[in-house]
Write a structure and sequence with these properties.
single chain, mainly alpha, 434 Repressor (Amino-terminal Domain), elongated
């Protein structure tokens, strides 16, 4: 039996059945978490060093690098990016 392949909408959360508004927020959170994990890895930071830089506990950094997205609000992820001196911008698509 051949599996049916459905093209992605571009947002995996929408593809999983979340409504468009929630899917957009989840996508933003996932993107920011991925970016923060990449920053930590690129800079060779230990979890302790990352925690100090981000102003959070080491256990929160552990949650971040392990992808526990449910533990981070969009606002908190933007705050963490800001603490690294980075600016988050929103790109609107039609």
């Amino acid at each position: 039996m051949k599996e049916k392949i459905t093209p992605s909408s571009g947002n995996v959360f929408e593809d999983l059945g979340f409504d468009a508004a929630e899917a957009a927020i989840l996508q933003m959170r996932a993107s920011l978490m991925s970016d923060l994990r990449a920053y930590i890895e690129k800079n060779g930071l230990t979890q302790v060093a990352a925690a100090e830089r981000l102003g959070i506990s080491q256990s929160r950094v552990s949650d971040l690098v392990r992808g526990k997205w449910e533990k981070f609000s969009l606002e908190m992820l933007i705050t963490l990016e800001s603490r690294l001196g980075r600016k988050v911008s929103l790109k609107l698509a039609a």
